[in-house]
């Protein structure tokens, strides 16, 4: 109930501000128009009590007429109508308002002079046409304001929808990623149970350490680079128990990399992908290198592993590459970069993470 009350209060406050803005524009705009009229027609030198009453009557009438027109616009739903219906309706309405205002002008002028003034057709038509343009211009401003406001609301709604969908997609990917990691890790340990039970126990201990770290980061889309690196080291130590000398790895990490955040388990997934689809398929094993550096203010990560990347069978490279591409796109859009390619006897995976101060998530 408290949450709903807060939302209602904010909505009421925003509505109040819009009303205040409307009346400020109404009063200020028409006052400025009357002032321009007196200056343009040189009436400032001949202002007397009759002229003052006339100008004040115009001022009040213009506010009342346009405000009543506003109420008609809102109640009729004209703001939501198609453009081809709005334009002729506004033109016709502006002409009707001009006729009404001309009649009001006539009554005010007659009242201040104490007698009904004669009506001249040609000046009356000219006055009506002039004020048709004035009321049309008022309508143009009013409709433009609401069009821009509705456009902004639509944009905000669209951004919120995209953010919500991104959040759902990220959570979906994470829910797939953790079982994927567990399945591969348990397979590695299972391979050790018969060969070397002692190493299998050691591997289970390492796996528990990795799981403890990943569970602590479960709610985070992004984690510090050094925390992700710790998981990668634990994972490589775990795999080294299984592969022994068939797996060699080396790190070349820039200290500035620790100032950046990366998607949770992203580097670990790419390292795992390199071992599973590269090194594990080589009879003599292989090497894996992890390098990070700062380029143009962005974090550049390179993972190099022995093996061969078959571009014609991308689905066979596993879940890791697909999830990495999707997560980078969802989190950073086109501000991130991902590439995988062959370079001699190695497969190179490159990832660029944008600067935290510049990323939009």
Structure notes:
The chain is α+β, with helices and mostly antiparallel strands and 361 residues long. The protein folds into 2 domains: 23-158, no CATH class; 196-353, Histidine kinase-like ATPase, C-terminal domain (Heat Shock Protein 90, 2-Layer Sandwich), CATH 3.30.565.10. The chain is 66% helix and 13% strand. It has helices at 2-40, 49-76, 83-113, 121-195, 197-216, 225-243, 266-277, 319-332, and strands at 222-224, 247-253, 261-263, 286-295, 298-306, 337-343, 346-353. A hairpin with a 2-residue loop joins β4 and β5. The longest helix has 75 residues, at 121-195. The two termini are 30 Å apart.
What fraction of residues sit in β-strands?
5-15%
Distance between the termini: 30 Å
Radius of gyration from CA coordinates: 36 Å
Instruction: Name the quaternary structure.
Output: single chain
Shape: rod-shaped
**H and E string:** HHHHHEHEEHEEHEE
Stretches where pLDDT is under 50 for at least 5 consecutive residues are 1-7
How many domains is the backbone divided into? Answer: 2
According to CATH, the homologous superfamily of the largest domain is Histidine kinase-like ATPase, C-terminal domain
Largest sheet: 5 strands, mixed
CATH top level of the largest domain is Alpha Beta
Estimate the helix proportion, in percent: 55-70%
Q: Total helix count?
A: 8
Helical/strand content category: alpha+beta
What's the architecture of the largest domain in CATH terms?
2-Layer Sandwich
